[in-house]
Amino acid sequence: MSETTMQMMRKNEAGSQTTGAAKPPAHQSVYEQLRDLILFGELAPGQAVTIQGLAERLGAGMTPVREAIRRMTSNGALSMQGNRRVIVPELTENCIEQLDFMRKMLEPELARRAAERMTSACIEDLKSCDDALNTAISQGDIKGYLTHNYRFHACLYAAADAPVLMATTDRLWLRFGPSLRVVCGRFGTANLPDKHVELLEALAKGDPEAASRALGEDVEQGMLQIRAALTDTAPAQ
């Protein structure tokens, strides 16, 4: 699948626009690199890193790195510490409860709206994402799982044509995304149930309410896994 849908989600979140094949400004490229490190758990919750260390890791100057950090901090995806260090915040029970509430309000609605506007081409893109996700699960490929799971949801939400809801949802993903790697490390990729099959069936049938319900159940399972991983308890079956 092309990068189009993920770029659409990023544009809503970052407020940046590019035209044609124009290369994005350096500061935007650095921001997106840092965003991916956080979103896919390359920077683990509770892991402190120096600004200089990030600049070296991203191969970028200090100015665009500081700007990227500022944007990530405003989204709650990073917190500033002393000694020029930043940290990916660890989720508290209170934060998990709020994320759970917000996701259940927004994401099923995005799925419902997407179902009303669904095209056969978009369904094929979603199936391609889900196939890649399942391959990653079977191979124990944590990075692949996290990447393709995000792309699946990005593709779906882009189809909803609801940029305000989508941008807000993307900020929520930046808050809980790093903890999904903790889930994978704690329980493995083989124990990652989802409702994508039911969701795809609902989309193929053009059933907005069934799509919304399946997405709500998908969110419920995901947040239960996160809570279980972070509280050192067995995941719900």
Provide the CATH topology of the largest domain. Answer: Four Helix Bundle (Hemerythrin (Met), subunit A)
Major β-sheet, in short? 3 strands, antiparallel
> Mean of the pLDDT scores?
87
**CATH class designation of the largest domain:** Mainly Alpha
According to CATH, the homologous superfamily of the largest domain is GntR ligand-binding domain-like
Approximate strand percentage? under 5%
Radius of gyration over all CA atoms, rounded:
18 Å
Overall morphology: globular
Unreliable segments of 5+ consecutive residues: 1-6, 12-21
Briefly summarize what is shown:
This protein is mostly helical.
How does this structure look, described?
- By secondary structure, the protein is mainly alpha-helical.
- It folds into 2 domains: 4-87, Winged helix-like DNA-binding domain superfamily/Winged helix DNA-binding domain (Arc Repressor Mutant, subunit A, Orthogonal Bundle); 93-230, Up-down Bundle (Four Helix Bundle (Hemerythrin (Met), subunit A)).
- It is 70% helix and 4% strand.
- It has 10 helices and 3 strands.
- The protein has helices at residues 4-14, 26-39, 51-58, 62-74, 93-116, 120-139, 142-158, 163-187, 196-205, 208-230; strands spanning 48-50, 79-81, 85-87.
- Strands 1-3-2 form a 3-stranded antiparallel beta sheet.
- Helix 5 (93-116) packs across helix 8 (163-187), helix 6 (120-139) runs antiparallel to helix 9 and helix 8 packs across helix 10.
- The longest helix has 25 residues, at 163-187.
- Mean pLDDT is 87; it is low at 1-6 and 12-21.
